Give the backbone structure.
Amino acid sequence: MPNERTSATAGTVDKVAAPDPLCFVLMPFGRKSDGTGTPIDFDAVYEQLIAPAVRAASLEPVRADEEVTGGIVHKPMFERLILCEYAVADLTFANANVFYELGVRHAVRPYSTVLTFAAGTRLPFDVELDRGLPYPLGPDGAPEQLETARDRLTARLVAARDATVDSPVFQLVEDFPQVDRLKTDVFRDQVRYSAAWKERLAGARDEGLAAVRAAEGELGNLRDVESGILIDLFLSYRAVKGYDEMVSLVERMPRPLAKTPLVREQLGLALNRLGRREEAERVLLTLIQERGPSSETYGILGRVYKDQWTEAKRAGEEFRARGLLDKAIEAYLAGFEADWRDAYPGINTVTLMELREPPDPRRNQLIPVVSYAAERRLASGQTDYWDHATRLELAVLDEDETAARQALSHALAVIREKWEPESTANNLRLIREAREHRGEHVPWAELVERELLRYVHERSVRLESPRPQ
């Protein structure tokens, strides 16, 4: 139960429910595996085991924001590590981010940090001496024996209230200075503010560009806004095709945030959508030069060259168009070779190879590899629209109507933003037109395109219709 405090007002004493203490959870996100292929679903561990155990200890769980800033450790992260009264750290797979955060926590908090890990995990020597709490996993990577595991973790958190020193820094270094707990009420408000803004921006995306602009106007000075909120705002503009706003937002972001790979990649995307292709190319090539090959960066660069090819083709510039098509193919191929698990640059590679005259023979070698990457992603359970869209494009390339219809059904069920099916329909149209030019006709292919575009049209109508008062 929450604590209670008394406050005197106008001669009376009222009991006011105090908020539960905050417990920061340090752990990876999503589904991961170690070098041997052992899987673990960290989201299930959090939702089924850690968060319920924290609440049962009369604490409020706070998990790190998954949409952090492309690797940057930002101010709210340090605030949560320092100011949350309690913390749970999941050490499974010795995740580098978790260990960094645990080091910060141990340096500033002598007690109230509980360690846990999946049973069978080999912990690094530096934390082997700490009293970690193992939890069992099932074959699917989700936690098992939940009631027992939750009770044990809850008991450990309740025991942590006794202020027994658990930080090895404070245990081993006598008189190590403790950072006093400061501004906790302000910090708690900031945590809730961040969660509320996620909901605010999600609603604005559904309403369109004007609503996202209005949301930004409510934020005030952007240099005082949490990095996670700025990234959410940035990607919200992308979702509603506010590409001018994306470019403007980058210019007004704090410089460390604007220099992260995520922001620079999406800046390249926005510049390209605005027709500023040379600027987009420069941003992306500079990022590749500084950071090395990346499937995402090369994928966006491939799109820049693909759009240039489309423009040259429309202008009747036959030889320039051929050169730009080859340039796009090589960029997408470099992205796929940077990470064979990422099917996005792979499917674009084989699609553009199909559009060459004559088709690039390398596509026959690549299609099975792209297909395997897509299937492994689908089998992981962590899928999105693009995984099903990739399977759809592969089915069209293979002229497999049954597989195409099945993939289309699955893709339509998981669309998030209306530009996603637009992009897929455009690729399928290019394939169909290239084949028709060669005298090949697939009668059902156009039906697939129409179904994708019908969703886009119906979504636009819903957004434009007046809402009931």
Residues 183-259 form one domain. Residues 1-17, 66-73, 125-129, 178-187 have pLDDT under 50 and may be disordered. Residues 115 and 160 are 11 Å apart (CA to CA). The radius of gyration is 26 Å.
